[in-house]
Prior knowledge:
Number of helices: 15
Strand content: 15-25%
Number of strands: 18
Strand order of the largest sheet: 11-12-16-15-14-17
Structural class: alpha/beta
Largest sheet: 6 strands, antiparallel, barrel
Distance between the termini: 57 Å
Low-confidence stretches: none
Radius of gyration: 23 Å
Oligomer: single chain
Amino acid sequence: MPKSVYLVASGDLRLSANQECWPAQNNLEQAVTAVFRSLGWEVLRAHPFLPAKGHGFIDSQRYGMDVFSSIPPDAPVVVAEAVWQYTHHVLPGLRFHRGPILTVANWSGQWPGLVGLLNLNGSLVKAGVPFSTSWSKDFSDAYFLKNIREWTETRRITHDIHRVRDLDISELPDSAANQGRDLAAAQMRRKAILGIFDEGCMGMYNAIIDDEPLNAIGVFKERLSQSALVARMSTVKDDEAHKVRQWLNDKGMRFVTGKDEKTELTDAQIHQQLKMYIAAMRMAHEFGCDAIGIQYQQGLKDTVPASDLAEGLLNNPDRPPVFDENTGEELYAGAPLPHFNEVDECAGLDALVTNRCWTALGMDPSTTLHDVRWGEQFESPDLNAFVWVLQISGAVPASHLDGGYKGAISERQPSMYFPLGGGTLKGFGKPGEIVWSRVFIEGGALHLDIGRGSVVRLPLQEELRRSSQTTSQWPLVSAIFNGVTRDGFMARHRANHVNIAYASDAAAANKALAVKAAMFHSLGVKVHLCGAVDFK
């Protein structure tokens, strides 16, 4: 058909999530269809609503392959997302599609489509598949309409990302460049190990680093099994888990518990999570891991409570001590064991390097990744800025929360995602200077985007509103990325995740960024400076 576009919708792997999120997806599709029709284009949905399932998502890789086999190979395609989606459902079809591809999401933190969009975009970048992308709150704003009009006329969308520039190593202060070079050399002398508890979580193709580029910078994978982690949990004594719980109670952390295993967080669930914390640390030590990542959703969610509480504890140097079960030695004493949520290996490599740099600089090496969940402009007498909502389901260390453990609460993970429950490590991000970054793969090579930013505290009523618009059980960080606009960030960012680490002040953040950029550069990673970065 002339002036027609095929619409596909990649969904979750979990039936409960697809059913719950379908109304939001349906609303998005109607709005996008109306915009195309206003430009004289017809939208053809490439796959039907399935009454037996209660949704209209592509919910498996096989189904996605079958859907794309019926789409003309040169036809324009739009992938519309209001939800978290599993990229591998549609990536095989998009890899071989010859026509123009557009990815679209609603500007909402609800399920969230923005996170799904960024994951899909990052995966397409890694796969070398050309695409265009856009986003909108209600699909009537001038920016979105301009983008869609441009795409229908030229089959591409141009975004302003001029605040991204390649690192010129000569602009770094000599001391930072030398320190980063020395850290890289040390990394190559003593190779590092990432413990991978099952690879490829949630269809995140962009989160997998092939062995060749990873090994080239002195980092290797220890491929571990989540079933082995569950088995190791069974060897942890109840008394050991009770001591960890008492440690957290003494620190002032609060647990919102009940009795109903299906809907509430229970002491039994927490007990299992703390056994996981101990078991994961023992396995990491046994295999000599410098950082670990637990897939945590598929498979693990059906056998034990969520891993989020364990992840948050691992990422903090101030954490309950864990001892070798044979020698009694305290494991990773006085230091975090960096954990990368959802086995995002790009975030794991970032956390490893951050740990090396921050430790060398004498700063708290606590780091975590976050979903780039959503954001809005915030205006007050003291602040006028676009403030991002960063969230991850519990892997945030208490040192990143305002009030530390005393400011931390553990609430039950939503049963839609986690039938066996488990608590998070929730709180509001503490105000301060941060360095944000993302490792990604493009053209078969490793890259790093890095910039400066800050975390702010908004009025409590506003923070609670933002939390209610997303997943209220998760920690929430209100972040500003210096010199980077909302649309510039979205157009450039190659992933659903972003790493952050705190610095004591602006000068310390500048130095840490310089050392980290120099270390990555010395390892052969292509470094890109984003936003307002000035080493003078």
